[in-house]
């Protein structure tokens, strides 16, 4: 007997496009999808419990595959200062920029970090997110990076969301290593086995950029990750083409993220490696960038495109994956189907979890979102509107 049967729903399985199945039902056993099909093919007597979906559309739970959502403080003061004419250099000299977040995060306890992050995370969960990637990178010491990753694990323990943790020690050079970036990279590589040994790291990331870490320094980080059997991903080609996409593809990386300055060689390398392109419209919008990622070329090459909020205090204080879906459509001309696939099947692949989540298929984890919409394209259409009417996590209806 099934544990629960969800009936009177239209399914967007996200297998071969939307994978639409109208007037459908889906059954759960032991937290996994046991059956799905036409409602007429399932009897309520086959399940211990039955939930009426009231004609909603049911999609896979959304996946936010790139966030820095665990951090302390915010940078709204800098946002206001910039709009009042202050330059980035002036703000940095006054102690602002990423180091202001580093100071706040280092000073916060585990519980303080959790409490400050909770409202941001709650906003995503209310929009149907059931899997969330959380990066470190605002500690930049072993102790503080471990604290961020512990809090990320705590989120997954306390809330109805699966958390993928990413070690981003190579996010910026901390003040105590000013002028010694190579020495700091050595420190990052030394942190990695200690953090991995505590079970805190699912993947490793770096910021390969002219204002971040060089190609050679990033490769040292990737070599250390490979030695530990950890998958890699990369902040690549956001501000300039540093050939980061080619590098992460060479290490069979899960994803290359941002990609506004991605070139043809990087696209070819990603295609060959199966590396996902993660599009982050929040940072593009917030920084008032005018160079979009090469969506048409990625599409033509068959590179899967994921979509994420990039929630962070400095360049993308976004807590709505639905808004991100609208933005990739309006700013970069993705289709609504591509946007939804970017938050489900392709986002799951960007985390290496495509075997578990991202589509509605028998055997996969029973993570769903129920939407009061007439068709799936509405999820990318409305601005500032949340039609989510229920979230199922591990087969259990958590919110209606």
Radius of gyration: 21 Å
Number of strands: 16
Average pLDDT reading: 96
Structural class: alpha/beta
- Helix count? 15
Distance separating the two termini: 25 Å
Q: What best-fitting shape do the alpha-carbon axes yield?
A: globular
Helical coverage, percent range:
25-40%
Strand fraction equals 15-25%
Uncertain spans, ≥5 residues at pLDDT below 50?
none
Largest pleated sheet: 8 strands, mixed
Q: Could you characterize what this model shows?
A:
Helix 8 runs parallel beside helix 9. The radius of gyration is 21 Å and the shape is globular. The strands form 2 sheets. Strands 1, 2, 3, 4, 5, 14, 15 and 16 form an 8-stranded mixed beta sheet that branches. Strands 6-7-8-9-10-11-12-13 form an 8-stranded parallel beta sheet. The chain is built from 15 helices and 16 strands. The chain is α/β, with parallel strands linked by helices. The chain starts with a strand and ends with a strand. The model has no long low-confidence stretch (mean pLDDT 96). The longest helix has 17 residues. Strand 9, helix 7 and strand 10 form a beta-alpha-beta unit.
